[in-house]
Amino acid sequence: MKIIKVNLKEKSYDIIISDGTITGSAGIIKKSGLGNYAYIITHRSIKDRYGRLLEKTLKKNGIDFKFKLLPETEKTKSIHTAIRVIEDIVKTGKSKKIFLVAFGGGVIGDLTGFVASIYKRGIPYIQVPTTLLAQVDASIGGKTAVDLKEAKNIIGAFYQPRLVLSDISLLQSLDARQMRAGLAEIIKYGIIKDKILFDFLAQNRKNILAKNKKALEFIIARSSSIKARIVEKDEKEEKGLRTILNFGHTFAHAIESGSGYRKYNHGEAVAIGMVCALEMSHRLKILDKHKLEKATTLIRSYGLPIKIKGVALKDILTPLYYDKKFIGKRTRFVLVKDIGRAVTKENIPIPLARRIIADRFK
Fold first, then answer.
1. Is 282 a catalytic residue?
2. Is 114 in the same domain as 48?
3. pLDDT per residue over 143-156, tens digit each?
4. What is the reported pLDDT for 90?
5. Residue 122's domain is classified under what CATH number?
6. Beta 2-6 vs 13-18: how paired, if at all?
């Protein structure tokens, strides 16, 4: 078991990573003093597959619970769904000290955190991520949000969980596409912050894709630690330090939104977005061609897309202008100077971004 602490003073919490974290966490939840009633937000497929594991753990902690099942789609992450969930919590939570459990991937984690942040001006919640992408990214750092049709994650708040339980055993049931989606975010950590992780990914591809538990624990713990350290220094992205975690995401969110969240999942869009950001770094003479090709080769080697298909260019460009990292008319992109070294640049001409996106269609 690996425990990574996110040090945020009174908002500090642990990320617990192991093979069997859920069943091994009896007592941890109770000691956290979260409440006596767990309102678990999840999908039907996750409840059917892993619900009993969580039920047993909560019962051992003497905690009653209810499962709230939501559709397994990005469209679940909406303000309308959030309101419906809150209405149900109001009915369920009378005379109970309630806390929320995000039991799922990034969609469930974002929605649950958002609901927790606004219900009664904030109640406790914990993350039990069931996908690789959620374990290394969405469950850590307290970014919560819902989407509008105009842009992804446009309504949200910074609201930290009280605990993150990352159980590697849950990843064994993920299909190849879901695994690759998570690996895109892990590759991101290597490119922006950790050459050791980048090299490990390059040298251990077969073991990682085969879901070797030791390899998975290494890359999950390494990625989680990177994000935890960055969040500690810049929790609300006010100092510019946390911005580097958005590497590739400005392009990715536009691609996701432009496709109606149907063509590409988040990790696939991030993969294409990273290639766009790498290309932008090269064209601005920040990154040399060898490093560009090395990073692009790693992305492609994990079976991730680097080209755009089935989406109209104009549909991607519109949400690009709504990116929340832009300040008024001032653009802001995360770029790369070297493997393991990211930098944020402002006032990059939109026509350059447009040309780079257009090149991904060729």
1. no
2. yes
3. 999 988 777 788 99
4. 94
5. 3.40.50.1970
6. antiparallel
Active site residue 237: yes
Instruction: State residue 237's pLDDT score.
Output: 86
246 assigned to active site: yes
List 61, 153, 246, 265, catalytic entry: 246
Domain closes at, from 141, 173, 205: 173
- Domain-ending residue, one of 173, 201, 232: 173
Per the structure, how many domains does the chain have? 2
Q: Pick the catalytic residue: 242, 282, 291, 332?
A: 242
Active-site residue, from 9, 121, 314, 362: 121
**Shared-domain flag, residues 126 and 224:** no
Q: Is 8 exposed, middle or buried (0-12, 13-18, 19+ CB in 10 A)?
A: middle
Select which of 185, 235, 256, 279 is catalytic: 185
- Look at residue 23 in the predicted model and tell me its pLDDT: 87
Tell me the residue range of the domain where 60 lies: 2-173
> With contact defined as beta carbons under 8 Å apart, do 100 and 124 qualify?
yes
Flag residues of the chain having pLDDT under 50: none
The residue among 136, 69, 146 whose CA lies nearest residue 113 is 146
Within this chain, do residues 201 and 332 fall inside the same structural domain, yes or no? yes
Quick check: is 185 catalytic?
A: yes
d(CA 171, CA 166) in angstroms, rounded, equals: 10
Q: Provide the 8-state DSSP code for 7.
A: -
Q: Global pTM?
A: 0.92
Single out the catalytic residue among 77, 152, 180, 266.
266
pLDDT tens digit sequence for 254-272:
999 888 888 999 999 999 9
Residue 285 and residue 253 share a domain? yes
Same domain as 162, residue 237 = no
What pLDDT shows up at residue 330?
72
300 vs 288: CA distance, rounded Å: 19
Interval 300-312: pLDDT, tens: 999 999 999 999 9
Q: What is the CATH number of the domain that holds 337?
A: 1.20.1090.10
Q: Among the options 68, 152, 222, 253, which is catalytic?
A: 253
Residue type, 42: T
The one-letter code for the residue type at 81 is T
Give catalytic status of residue 121 as yes or no. Answer: yes
| Predicted pLDDT of residue 323 | 64
